[in-house]
Fold each of these.
Amino acid sequence: MSSESFRQFPARNRLRCTFFINFHKMNSILKAAIRLNGIRTVLHPVKNLVSVSRPQNQILAARNLWYMTSIQSQKLSAIHSNLCSCGCGSRKGVHTKAEKELVEFLTEEILAERKAQKVKTIPTEIQGFTASLNGAEVTLTKKTDSELIKITFNVNNSVDTDAEPEVNENLDKPEIGELKSKPSFKVDLVRGDNTISVLCSFVPPSEQEDGYNDSFGIDELSIYSGEWNENVYSVSGEVLDSYLYDLILNYLEEKGLTNEFVDKLSEYSTAYEHSAYIGLLEGLSKFVAGK
């Protein structure tokens, strides 16, 4: 009987068929094993049998085998029936209805998010900048002979939820555009004890002026010596002279902060934010499941 045809039987018929198949297999094994010396000691359940070839002894052997198999099946069935339905492996009654539903949802959600994850391993470098990760904060650094360029941003609340996802209605399974992380970021240009600090943010396509396609803009500008503190003066990008504003953008571009680099920064932030989100789901699932 093939495995495919066997699976087509109802559960009760499969159990009955399995018993008779196992019985005939065991009967053949017993007949072969009786030829060995000391078989009565090895086969303890049927050690009082004179010959397994006699019909009454075959019935007794089968009865013993059936009893042992039945007891083991009942134990396995009892263990399985006592397991929690949420898949945590705990015994029934450990979790409330809300906990079970939450764990079941999180299990499916984690699988779906991992399937949609485009970047499995977060890179340690982006266009010459070395990446350092600390929780939700990302630091990109590049050192030259004259200065240190440091870019810092935080992926918390950085996902662009205002943008409308693009949907191709001509496809059988329309693809929904992914959410993108576009965090504000700070650029520090450090020379010795002096630092120029420029706070930047992404410019929405709808706010980009005609003839200008800058991916980011200047929110704030400051310069200070030593460590930054609240007494450091800063000026808003909105009140900067327009020509000075453009010159600072050009200056940053020469340092490597081009539109292309900032787009790469957004891709990096998106991948890291997605990874952090999956980690949050996994942590929540383990906490609720009590693992």
Note: DSSP finds seven helices and eight strands in the chain.
Amino acid sequence: MFLNSKHNALAPFVRRGCSSSFEVTVPYKHLLAIRGRPAVLGCEFTPDPDLSNLVVTWQRQEDAQVVHSFYYQRDQLDRQSPEYHNRTSLYVSELHKGNASLRIAAVRPKDAGLYLCIVSNTKGTGRALMQVTYGALYSEPRLSIHVNSSALKVQFETEGFPKPEVIWLGEHDQNLSYHLEIHGQTEDGLYVIKSICEAQKPVVNITFKLKNHLLNQNLQRPVFLSYDEDTTGHMIIVLAVLLVVCILLVIGIVWLAVQKQNKQRPSL
């Protein structure tokens, strides 16, 4: 019920079956699927009101694994690849209209690749090829600020796919130097991005920008911070004074307790 032909390119995009009146087409050659969202792979064919001989098979072009199959007027999922169990469906009520579109729920990184839509009925047999690309929107960047005696470091951390473009801008929109860490992909296929910009001034006015060109996502997060360079020294002094006061209080409490105990002792 499925074909095991190998193709290395999208052309020819549409192939006609044995009948010139029958064809299988896809409305677009490329589909951009977003992590966690459903993806609908469109496919249309010349319909036949009689569905008893209709066979619809979706399979991966790279390794011919079966994504979804339909024949004998019902889904046939016993030979479906485990990667797609409980994640695929056809619009069965639309089959008589020539709609063989496939819905994949909760898109994953491994779903990216080439897909064949293969359809046959009494009018003929045909196939069409589609490419699916995977992308993940970057999460809201998490801000952390690290202060030491010599500098202030502003860090943003986020996850997404593919690798983004990162820019740090100064108060007058000038490009700033920064440190960028891109950690390997997680189990969800995401890149973990950490970017640090170091500021030397007491007043920090900088902007973090991230672009995910694949998904046309643009994040821009300004950071304005005013701090006292001597704050650390003042804090040390305050803590030292508080420590001395606490020690004196403890000594005083102990002394009073000893005096009270001595007064309560019976004289000999």
Note: The chain has a mean pLDDT of 85.
Amino acid sequence: MFSQVLLLLLSITPFSSPTPVAKRAFSNGPVITSNFPDPAFINVGGTYYAFATSNGAQNIQIATSPDFDTWTVTGSDALPTIPSWSTGDVWAPDVAQLADGSFVLYFAATSSTNTNMHCVGTATSSTVQGPYTASDTAFACPLDQGGAIDPAGFADSDGSLYVVYKVDGNSLGGGGTCGNGDGSYSTPIMLQAVEADGVTLTGTATQILDRDTDDGPLIEAPSLVLVSGTYYLFFSSNCYNGAVYDTSYATASAVGGPYTKASSPLLVSGSDGGALNSPGSATVGPAGAQMVFHADSVAGDSSLRQMWTAGISVSGGVVSIS
């Protein structure tokens, strides 16, 4: 039944065979200049749709583009009503389209049990822009490990569907930047199989990556794609509000790993040869050709995280900006 899934997913890879898309190098500065953190995108009917973390007015922001170059923030809210298990503060959405034409939204939001932590939730809609109706049951909520954030979907070549997310261990404390400066806690990336509806769990989640010394206090924001038999797991390292926040990647020959981290990040501050600051929380599109990510408008100031785009090349286990 997984083989019936047709179309794209956002932050990780599509629930489908990807449609070829044109590559492009860095956008000439941010394509969205307002606060649009943790962006993810999908192409439906030739139109690009981007979704982002709450800006205080909308729980999930939406922007559209006809060409991946010119973007318009709509001002509408993809998730106007939060689920009963949450108090709000919605982060890092991702959207997938299923075989029946409906859409699944993945997101993180605060737990009503412990408002210092987030859980991953799901919501559904008949249209890509919503409004989405959230499930009253959290998808992943390991509060004893710090909660869960940054969900994204993935469809394997055999049609099997998965969701990846981060266990937010740094929310437990540990001091220093992002609450885990002494490295006391793990921040693993988890892989959870789901049924054809994109939301029903199959088995239990398994760990496919974790932080090490070079990653600072955490890894987060997973995005998974499959290109020519190699799995590319994109993620961010270090604290989001610091100058060394980056976009990195790891590779594997099987979806469950083991994953080997690249020897150096894909994106760091100044990667564009200019004013790119703390580039992270990237979503990579189908076939590993297009990417969206956020970067700070001013070095050292994460209060305004703007969306950038880039074209990438993925081949032989190596990713580069094209």
Note: The mean pLDDT is 92.
Amino acid sequence: MIKTCQTFGETMHTWARYLIFFQYIGTKYRSLKPVNAVSLSVSSRTDTGVHSLSNSAHFDLQRKNKPPFPEDVLVEALNFHLKTEQIRITRAHRVPVDFHARFYAKSRTYVYRIALGISQHSLLPLTDHNLCWNLRNTELDVGAMREAAALLVGTHNFSSFRAVSSDMPFKNPVKTLDVADIQPGSSFAHSHFHRDIPIWELTFRSRSFLYRQVRRMTGALVAVGQGKLSLPQLMGILEAQDSLAYPNNMAAPAHGLFLTRVDYKDSGEEA
């Protein structure tokens, strides 16, 4: 977990690898990139506008003639330098030098929040502004959505549910979706707002996802709930295994999506 090496002039350096957990409101961020020489390996890349309640990353930190930082000191120091940024480090752990935040993850969980009966953003409480997809519909056929979600669970070629990207040729489109669940949620201000806002949460869990896969699955399920897409049509999209088979403008917007959890194998750690 700690490695020391002798360098020119007999100066001793000590370095350690850390796994950090962090959260952010992704509205104004395009990506999380370090501005210094530290190489940060993030477990899950999120689209512009997507949020996280718990993402994770690892990096190596070297100090000159001093032992590695204690985890709590590192968390405090990182948050101090983040200052007013809408990013917070929640905890940190020393990990073995061969640990990798991305490749050691055994599952990732995303939650998509939908608010019903909202014609425009300004009608949402500030606590939910840009943190859910507001729909004019007052109702969705949740039963049909759950039937549709069940069709997506399991191992499939999800090519139709990935957006075109530069790394498409290098990504295996076959993924195993372990969970696709739809449950009632609530506004973050439900106890203090002047009216109830129907909120639904769509939860997806898999070891990994394709580019924009969750947003495309969400958009398709909502279309089913609105009666715009039938179950046979959904199956047709899935079986086409072609990103061009996915209807234009159906994908859910980024601002309703949260990465909520990253679980790791053989380490006992979870984000």
Note: Helices lie at 71-82, 142-152, 213-225, 231-240.
